Task: inverse folding
């Protein structure tokens, strides 16, 4: 070890700086003395792919020395980092004179190759996270987050500059920055302590107030890989002004800062994201209950999403179309929530987009079932008509009633303002391609996705003629994978299509068969198509839940509670398998 140290020279890189770039020529390798290095590769113009992180004692750059001198990856300092640099001559001398160096090099290269052979994508897993509080309420997020991380098996330490009393601690350590420190002395002490703690813990949470915005705060935050600017919606303007000041003072923090909205129970949607600042995405929404209350389902879900983000896990939920049968999605979600399972983003087609919007918007599944039943059940006299439910549904499409109904629940909220990301799928008849909406007006995105062809007119917008996404992609699991999902749960309500049409069944004699009406035929065509498309495009799903909705019709919205019960039973049946699969997702570093 001393021979390696004596052979190299010490170099330092501040957080965010590129150490070496893919494709450049270089004949040096590096050993991490202190700090953290991120390795990424650029593959044919696609977004940069994360190879992994390196900490103290690990090395990189040796492939350029061993081969043609070209860098095969880009290495950047995640936090302030100190490296030992070895040039080619010293590297070859060490191979000849220090057998342990060659053995360890071979071993680490073998482990890296084995890891690279796995197909599982890697995601950002920040070790040092800065949480910058703007109000007393936002300070309430740190303790439940630390408890949740510790409960997941991580070793956690919180380094804080709060002068007030810390909440009751859990299974994690708390260290205060001494009050008497200030200026450069405080900055050095915090950065040094963060480095020390990071070497022995799975995660360091640097809990700071916005004091010292002009000097101390930006310098201390340079030690963080991820910076969470904790914001209460009602104080957004002041928080954004302070954030702009921070970025002006230390531009290198750009790209590491993301907003975390700390919301109250009566705030369903966050304000629009501020413009003019290049923030890291996604942002997160956490509904935080008052300290004396029991944590709500929305608080638990928000904390779970933050924990998974830190652990590089992305759980996606794909919801398929199927008319009223989509209400089974809500029953399944009720069962999953009861087991403590939540998701990080949702993709939905047709009625899957409709139900997905209610879930992403923070509505409890049972609350949404009741709301949809009330809104989509025709009056008693309409129900008495032959095909009354179908006539009512057809009328809603023809007079544009879907938009009015959904505005009652969502107003003018955008997809970005929902409590978790939602992508909806429609099809453009002009280009013949699917159109995925994950930004912009939430109601418009849903209405375009549920726009059943022929029954409803194509929606004309921006050179497109948009209809139901089930025409091409009825279970959009691939949309989630494209957005970084590491595990996808799909709920398919069309997989068990009833062998029945117009009161006709396979065993019905020809002489007794009845002709179906116009609307009944159109709805049936939609069902058959959704069934066939789903069978073709379900390969991206890791676990598929298939409620048996064969006893229900496309327009059976009045049977909402029965459909929800079917979905709940289907999800309950796979819970043991799903729970084990999700446990396997957690890989300790």
Result:
């Amino acid at each position: 070890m001393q021979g390696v140290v004596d052979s190299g020279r010490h170099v330092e890189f501040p957080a965010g700086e590129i150490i070496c770039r893919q494709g450049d020529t270089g004949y040096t390798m590096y050993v991490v003395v202190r700090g953290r290095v991120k390795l990424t590769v650029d593959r044919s113009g696609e977004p940069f792919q994360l190879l992994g992180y390196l900490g103290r004692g690990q090395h990189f750059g040796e492939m350029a020395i061993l081969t043609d001198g070209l860098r095969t990856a880009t290495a950047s300092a995640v936090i302030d980092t100190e490296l030992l640099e070895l040039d080619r001559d010293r590297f070859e001398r060490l191979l000849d004179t220090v057998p342990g160096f060659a053995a360890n090099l071979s071993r680490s290269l073998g482990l890296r190759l084995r890891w690279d052979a796995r197909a599982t994508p890697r995601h950002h897993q920040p070790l040092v996270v800065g949480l910058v509080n703007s109000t007393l309420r936002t300070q309430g997020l740190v303790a439940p987050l630390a408890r949740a991380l510790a409960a997941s098996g991580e070793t956690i330490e919180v380094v804080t500059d709060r002068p007030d009393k810390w909440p009751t601690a859990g299974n994690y350590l708390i260290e205060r920055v001494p009050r008497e420190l200030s200026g450069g002395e405080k900055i050095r002490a915090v950065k040094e302590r963060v480095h020390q703690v990071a070497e022995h813990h799975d995660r360091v949470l640097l809990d700071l107030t916005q004091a010292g915005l002009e000097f101390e705060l930006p310098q201390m935050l340079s030690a963080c890989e991820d910076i969470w600017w904790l914001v209460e919606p009602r104080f957004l303007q002041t928080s954004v002004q302070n954030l702009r000041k921070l970025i002006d003072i230390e531009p290198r923090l750009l790209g590491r800062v993301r907003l975390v909205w700390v919301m109250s129970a009566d705030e369903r949607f966050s304000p629009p994201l501020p413009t003019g600042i290049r923030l890291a995405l996604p942002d997160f929404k956490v509904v935080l209950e008052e300290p004396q209350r029991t944590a709500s389902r929305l608080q638990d879900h928000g904390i779970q999403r933050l924990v998974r983000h830190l652990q590089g896990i992305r759980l996606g939920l794909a919801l398929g179309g199927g008319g009223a049968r989509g209400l089974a999605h809500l029953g399944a979600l009720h069962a999953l929530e009861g087991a403590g399972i939540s998701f990080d983003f949702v993709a939905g087609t047709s009625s899957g987009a409709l139900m997905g919007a209610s879930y992403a918007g923070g509505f409890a599944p049972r609350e949404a079932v009741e709301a949809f039943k009330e809104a989509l059940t025709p009056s008693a006299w309409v129900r008495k008509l032959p095909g009354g439910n179908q006539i009512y549904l057809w009328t809603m499409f023809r007079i544009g009633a879907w938009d009015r109904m959904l505005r009652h629940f969502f107003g003018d909220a955008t997809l970005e303002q929902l409590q978790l990301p939602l992508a909806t799928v429609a099809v453009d008849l002009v280009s013949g391609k699917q159109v995925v909406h994950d930004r912009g007006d939430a109601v418009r995105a849903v209405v375009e996705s549920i726009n059943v062809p022929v029954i409803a007119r194509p929606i004309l917008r921006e050179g497109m003629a948009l209809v139901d996404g089930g025409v091409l992609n009825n279970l959009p699991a691939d949309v989630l994978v494209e957005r970084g999902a590491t595990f996808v749960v799909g709920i398919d309500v069309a997989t068990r299509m009833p062998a029945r049409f117009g009161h006709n069944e396979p065993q019905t004699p020809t002489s007794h068969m009845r002709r179906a009406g116009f609307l009944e035929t159109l709805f049936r065509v939609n069902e058959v198509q959704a069934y066939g498309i789903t069978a073709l495009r379900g390969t991206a799903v890791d676990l598929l839940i298939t409620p048996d909705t064969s006893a229900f019709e496309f327009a059976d919205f009045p049977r909402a509670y029965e459909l929800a019960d079917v979905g709940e039973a289907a999800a309950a049946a796979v819970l043991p398998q799903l729970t084990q699969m999700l446990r396997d997702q957690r890989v300790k570093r």
About this structure: The first strand starts at residue 9 and ends at 13. The CA atoms of residues 361 and 419 lie 6 Å apart. The chain has 19 helices and 23 strands.
